[in-house]
Amino acid sequence: MKHPILLHIHTYPTEKICKLKAKQKMIALTETLIQIQDKLFAQQKYKVLIILQGMDTAGKDSAVKHVFYGVNPAGCNVKSFKAPTHEELAHHFLWRISNHCPSKGMIQIFNRSQYEDVLIPVMNETLTKNQLEERCNEINNFEAGLINNDTILIKFFLHISQNEQLKRLAERKTNITKKWKYQEADVKDIANHEAFLESYQFVINNSFKKSNWHVVPADKKWYKNYFILDKIVKTLQEYKIEYPS
Predict the structure, then answer these.
(1) CA-to-CA distance for 236 and 241, rounded, in angstroms?
(2) How far apart are the C-alpha atoms of 215 and 160, rounded to whole Å?
(3) Which of 17, 47, 72, 163 could form a disulfide with 151 if both were Cys (CB 3.0 to 4.6 A apart)?
(4) Side-chain half-sphere of 90: how many Cα atoms within 13 Å?
(5) Which residues are CB-contacts of 116 (< 8 A; sequence separation ≥ 6)?
(6) In which order are the strands placed within the sheet that holds 47-54?
(7) What is the pTM of this model?
C-alpha cells in the first residue's frame, strides 16, 4: 500500500465546504454519533479506540472538546499521554498503553499514544533504525490483537503547517485563556517542524496496514473538527452496532 507523503499533503481544506455548512453538518453527525454510542454501550460487543496524534498546537485538545461534546460521558474516556513516569519507564513501553485500552461498549480517546515511543526516539536519535522498526512491529502486533478482539481502531494525524503553529504559539503568549498552554519547549519543537514531519512519516510508513491513518488538514480548526467527526461516524457505520434483541 502506498503511504501518503506528508510534505505533499495540504494542511488546509481542499474540500469545497464553508465553515457554516461544516458546523451544520456537525450537528447532524453528532446526533448520529450519540445514537451509535447508545447502541454500542447496550450491545457490549465492540470497543472503540480513537487515537489523536499531531505536533504542538495542532488542536488535539480542542478536537476532544468539540468532536465528542455530545457523547455520554458514562461511555467515553479520555487519556492524555505525557512523558513516561519512572514507574512506566520500568515496564515495557506498551504497558502504560494497554492499561487504558477500552472495554466492551466503551469509546476511548488517546490524546497522543503508543506512537510517542517511536516519534521521540526518532527525533532524539536514541534508538537505531532496526530498533525503531522492531518497536513499530511490536505496536503493529499490539494493534492486530486489539482489532482481532473487536476493537474498532481509528487513527488521526492532525497535519498543521509551521506558519499556523507559529501563529497559534503567539496567541498562547497573549491570550489569557490560552497562556497556561504556553511552554518554552514548544518554540524549539516548532522550529524543528520538518524533522517532526519526517518522524511522523516514518511512523506512518511502518504502521499496521489494517488500521491506516487519516491525515487531517488542521490549519483550520473548524474543518479539522468536522473532518474527524465525519470519519468517526462513517467508520462506525461500517459495523453492525445495534441494540441487542
Answers:
(1) 8
(2) 10
(3) 47
(4) 3
(5) 81
(6) 76-80, 107-111, 47-54, 151-159, 213-217
(7) 0.94
pLDDT digits (tens, 9 = 90+) for 195-221: 999 999 999 999 877 778 999 999 999
* Residue 57 backbone zone (phi > 0: left; psi -120 to 50: alpha; other: beta): left
Q: Per-residue b/e over 206-223, b at no fewer than 16 CB within 10 Å?
A: bbbeebebbbbbbbbbbb
Tell me the pLDDT tens digit for each residue of 51-75: 999 999 999 999 999 999 999 999 9
Report the run of H or E that residue 217 belongs to, with start and end: strand 213-217
Amino acid at site 233: V
Residue 26 in grid coordinates:
456537525
Distance CA 204, CA 201 (A): 5
Fold classification of 17-236 is Rossmann fold (3.40.50)
